[in-house]
Design a protein that fits this description.
about 375 residues, alpha+beta, Glutaredoxin, five-stranded mixed beta sheet, about 50% helix, about 15% strand
């Protein structure tokens, strides 16, 4: 028996004897090989990017993120297959599934000291539609998963999802599992659920798994708990600072739109003055009834032109902002830059389904021409 195999057997025996995991499995090379394509550029490009400071970004010109060539490796098609299929049938209200390889999502979960929630999606199974609509996409499940887990999903009939079905011996769907990394190429299955469950049952099972296993899997050292608490305090401080900045930003945007509207009305009024003076020299100013009509028309016009954009960040954040349908795509970039989010540096905006990149060649296109009106959802993708 090789040393690697002995270590694997020893790790599995110790885990089972301590009641930590239900079972251990070895990841197939098909899944492990998914990481090799990005190893030359460093896993930090994917995992650590959201923790980097954006100081350098704001020292550059406002168009810094357009000037860089879009040379990121083409690794998105397979990773986005599940999310595109899911949102096509069940919409965008669902847990935040990372659109990346399984080992990359597992690394994110390890860095954030969280377990991974894995969902293998079988579109043709008769229980799938009701489970997705009545359980997985409900508000209580979405909030619980986004707060406590790193979520990853895959299609059961292709790519890594197919390998997972074979490796884990999935017998029926829907299939969910709570997993965590272990020694070597092993994967710890902490909990698995096969078949339909209600939202309350799913949350109860997941909560029980967290309480039994603990947030620091594989170690009971106090320093890990201290680190988790420090990270939690930092996140709370960052969230508070972000909310304060967001309120200020919203006030600025409201003032901007009010000033623009007043400037537009004033300009139109000045352009029409000479004609009015020729027709009726005595009447120099519009009546109160005319002013009221103009204000009402302006309010109706603004409401009709409003376009709502839902922006989804890779750390799970969702932000909705209103624009005018005549605004250009570059205004969305300016809005994101104004938020001052930590870790948001060089990026671009993409739509989920059908997938389309809105980069430097799309900046002057209006939101209406881009098909965003009256509302749309965009995903923020980091660049190297």
């Amino acid at each position: 028996m090789s040393s690697t195999m002995r270590d694997s057997v020893r790790a599995e025996a110790e885990a089972l004897s301590n009641g930590i995991v239900r079972r251990m499995v070895s990841l197939p090379r098909n899944i492990l090989g998914g990481l090799s394509r990005v190893m030359n550029q460093g896993i930090d490009n994917l995992i650590g990017l959201r923790e980097r400071t954006n100081q350098n970004h704001y020292n550059q010109t406002p168009n810094f993120h357009f000037q860089q060539p879009f040379n990121q490796p083409q690794i998105i098609q397979e990773e986005w297959a599940f999310l595109s299929n899911f949102e096509q049938h069940y919409g965008t209200t669902h847990p935040f599934f990372y659109a990346c390889r399984f080992v990359d999502a597992l690394k994110i979960a390890e860095d954030e000291h969280k377990f991974m929630f894995m969902y293998v999606h079988s579109p043709e199974h008769p229980f799938t539609p009701s489970f997705c609509r009545e359980t997985l996409c409900t508000e209580v499940v979405v909030q619980f998963l986004d707060s406590n887990f790193v979520c990853w999903g895959a299609l059961a009939n292709r790519g890594e999802g197919s390998h997972m079905v074979t490796t884990l011996g999935v017998s029926t769907f829907p299939f969910c599992a709570v997993v965590a990394p272990s020694s070597g190429d092993n994967l710890a299955i902490l909990q698995q659920m096969e078949g339909p469950v209600s939202p309350a049952e799913l949350v109860e099972i997941l909560q029980s798994t967290i309480e039994q296993q603990g947030l620091a899997f594989g170690s009971g050292k106090a320093k890990q708990e201290d680190k988790r608490r420090a990270n939690l305090r930092l996140k709370e401080e960052q969230d508070a600072a972000y909310l304060a900045a967001l309120k200020i930003d919203q006030v600025h945007f409201q003032l901007f739109f009010v000033e623009e509207k007043e400037r537009h009305v004033k300009k139109n009024s000045e352009n029409k003055k000479p004609e009015k003076s020729k027709q009726n020299p005595v009447s120099k100013q519009p009546s109160k009834s005319t002013e009221s009509s103009q204000k009402a028309a302006s309010r109706g016009c603004k409401k009709a032109e409003e376009t709502k954009i839902l922006i989804r960040f890779q750390n799970g954040e969702r932000r909705e902002q209103s624009f005018l349908c005549t605004d250009k795509i570059k205004e969305i970039y300016r809005y994101i830059d104004s938020l001052g989010l930590v870790g948001v540096g060089n990026y671009r905006l993409i739509s989920n389904f059908p997938r389309k990149v809105y980069g430097s060649d799309q900046m002057e296109k209006t939101l209406k021409d881009a098909g965003f009106h009256p509302k749309s959802s965009l995903f923020l993708e980091f660049l190297d």
